[in-house]
């Protein structure tokens, strides 16, 4: 038996319960992983609230890094002691000390990447890769609008977009977050709690608009984001932290011949090759110092409800990481097999 956060009913952060669970042994094509660090994402909140559907009860969490402690029969290419990471719906269950995973969804973590960094960047980094390199291929000279620019994905989008030669405009909620966004490569920031981001973007671009908007906020920003786009611009809606956007007509896209997409990482990493390519590029950019991974909040796994509350209240910047309580007496950066098993 191991400890895990469980959800038996949908609702607020208080529905997260710290309980014992049975993990079992890995079957063919599976591995058993002892989690070392667990990434927190707004997807976890959506599952807890019931916005995203799954059967009750369940263990939430779609991202973690850990050590392989068991390998299913006949599985080649993976062994006990390997450090691996996974990230992305529909595979839940990372809010646990240990879990069973299909070997096909995990990727090897390079020795230069520590547990905390891997848990902070795996899912968010692959999301940034999907947005910048696949949904709309950002190139030098493009103007990019990033909402929630100081968040986990937003921070990576700003850094990566800047490295690609784009002019990045970021919206944030406070002066402190604006300062972080500027450090991360934003050329311009807009504090949306005090300023009209649409008017500011129009002024910054001299009325030309932006080539692409990356919008993880949803309801509060969707219509404004459309107004910020240049003709033939791309609206990439990849989240809904403020709720689902209001219904709209396809005719709303016609005045500027706009493109709209609501991408899912599962569709862009549909094959093992695509998954390894995306994760490999992310880890490579982290190792090279192109991406600075901001882990600004660390909590024991048993206190996941506190992390959820802070995330929903938009009090956090960068990534939140949960550390299994059984790991807290050990340095999370230790990577030797002897210390992991």
CATH architecture title of the largest domain: Alpha-Beta Complex
Cα Rg: 20 Å
The helix content, as a percent range, equals 25-40%
Query: Are there runs of 5+ residues with pLDDT below 50, and where?
Result: 330-341
Overall strand count: 15
Distance between the termini: 17 Å
CATH class of the largest domain: Alpha Beta
Strand content: 25-35%
Number of domains: 2
Question: Helices and strands: which structural class?
Answer: alpha/beta
The global form is globular
Reported for the largest beta sheet, the result is: 7 strands, mixed
Mean pLDDT over all positions: 92
Pfam families: ADH_N, ADH_zinc_N
GO cellular component, one term: cytosol
InterPro entries: ADH-like_C, ADH-like_N, ER, GroES-like_sf, NAD(P)-bd_dom_sf, QOR-like
Keywords: NADP, Oxidoreductase
Structural summary, described in words:
Helix 4 (175-183) links the parallel strand 9 (167-172) and strand 10. It contains ten helices and 15 strands. Helices cover 29% and strands 26% of the residues. The longest helix is centred in the middle third of the chain and has 21 residues, at 115-135. Strands 3, 4, 5, 6, 7, 14 and 15 form a seven-stranded mixed sheet that branches. Strands 10-9-8-11-12-13 form a six-stranded parallel sheet, with helices on both faces. Strands 1-2 form a two-stranded antiparallel ribbon. The protein is of the alpha/beta class and 341 residues long. It has two domains: 2-121 and 294-340, Alpha-Beta Complex (Quinone Oxidoreductase, Chain A, domain 1); 139-262, NAD(P)-binding Rossmann-like Domain (Rossmann fold), CATH 3.40.50.720. It is globular.
């Amino acid at each position: 038996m191991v400890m895990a956060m469980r959800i038996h009913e949908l609702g607020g952060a208080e529905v997260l319960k710290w309980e014992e669970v049975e993990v079992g042994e890995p079957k063919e094509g599976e591995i058993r992983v002892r989690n070392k660090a667990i990434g927190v994402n707004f997807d976890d909140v959506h599952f807890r609230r019931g916005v995203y559907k799954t059967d009750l009860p369940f263990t939430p969490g779609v991202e973690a890094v850990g050590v392989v402690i068991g390998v299913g029969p006949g599985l080649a290419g993976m062994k006990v002691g390997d450090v691996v990471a996974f990230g992305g719906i529909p595979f839940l269950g990372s809010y646990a000390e240990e879990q069973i995973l299909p070997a096909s969804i995990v990727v090897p973590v390079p020795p230069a990447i520590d547990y905390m960094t891997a848990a902070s960047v795996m899912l968010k980094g692959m999301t940034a890769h999907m947005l910048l390199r696949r949904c709309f291929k950002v190139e030098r000279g493009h103007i990019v609008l990033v909402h929630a620019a100081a968040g986990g994905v937003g921070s990576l989008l700003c850094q990566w977009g800047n490295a690609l030669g784009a002019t990045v405009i970021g919206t944030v909620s406070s002066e402190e977050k604006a300062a972080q966004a500027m450090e991360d490569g934003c050329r311009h920031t807009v504090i949306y709690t005090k300023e009209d981001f649409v008017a500011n973007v129009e002024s910054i671009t001299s009325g030309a608009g932006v080539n692409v908007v990356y919008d993880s906020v949803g309801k509060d920003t969707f219509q404004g984001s459309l107004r910020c786009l240049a003709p033939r611009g791309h609206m990439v809606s990849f989240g809904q932290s403020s709720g689902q956007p209001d219904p709209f007509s396809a005719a709303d896209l016609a005045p500027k011949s706009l493109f709209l997409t609501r991408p899912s990482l599962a569709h862009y990493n549909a094959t093992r090759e695509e998954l390894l390519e995306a994760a490999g590029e992310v880890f490579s950019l982290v190792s090279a110092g192109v991406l600075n991974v901001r882990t600004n909040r660390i909590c024991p796994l048993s206190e996941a409800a506190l992390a959820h509350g802070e995330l929903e209240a938009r009090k956090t910047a960068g990534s939140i990481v949960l550390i299994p309580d059984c790991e807290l007496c050990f340095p999370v950066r230790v990577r030797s097999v002897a210390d992991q098993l």
